[in-house]
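Researcher: Structure for this, please.
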Amino acid sequence: MSKNNLVRAPGGPRHRSRIIRLKPGEGVDIHKRIQIRDTRTNKLVRDLGPATRSAHGHPLYEHPSRMRFPAPGGVPTVTGAQAGDKSKIDGWSTYAAWQSNVGSPVMLMKTSWVVPDPPVDQSTQLIYIFNGLENDWQILQPVLQWGASPIGGGAFWAVANWLAESNDGYAYQSDFLRVSPGDKLTGVMEMTSGENGTFYYVSRFEGMSEIDLAIHTTDVLGYAAQTIEAYGVASQDQMPGGKAVSMQSIRVTTADSAPVVWTPYSNFSNSGLATVVKDGGIAGDVSLAFWKS
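Model: Predicted structure, token format:
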């Protein structure tokens, strides 16, 4: 596997062949096999083979492989933070996370934020800002991106919905839509139904139904995160303009109505800090700083 064939998707770098771009109306079905299906007719579009769950027993955001590039055979090669160089941001930079109680998955997660100004230094960096729901091998996420990702993009802001497996697995993404600084975004992930050990989720941006991403899986999503993920960032000018992005009006609904208490994290020496302005499952607020002040 050549490193030239590695791409930087939300959820971590992976081989280009592991990126699956979904057409409008297509969804992901993950049971014993991974299949792309028409969400209106349930007709099989593509079979990707047996579902191999690379579970780690804890949420993806706690797993070091998020910061690693896969090597031939799928064995991670240590780079960036794990190699001791924490000055360059390559991975989850700053985030706040919360875990629901066992047996009570997240039914709904909603976050609003405003598209920030573009970076002053517009080089080859790639920046993702999102709210996400995870288990120990998948993350579902409505994503704002700056830069060229595996689905395209460039020196502009765009949004898309993603489902990413741990980085030896697949990453599935919708089409993307361009957005502008100052636009208000609301990213939503919702369990639309769940019974007999199977669960239907949708990831979407409000007002942009043409890029919805629907999944049908046997795995519940119980870990929530508000995140800045960036690659190739070596200076403050390569981060978005301004000091921080405010992840506001956060709503998290679980079956047991457990209290939502966010825990902030920072992975690199130059990462900004996550500040919890307000905890709770209604009208929560987390500020994600772009750079260490």
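Researcher: Any notable elements?
Model: The mean pLDDT is 87. The longest strand covers residues 152-165.
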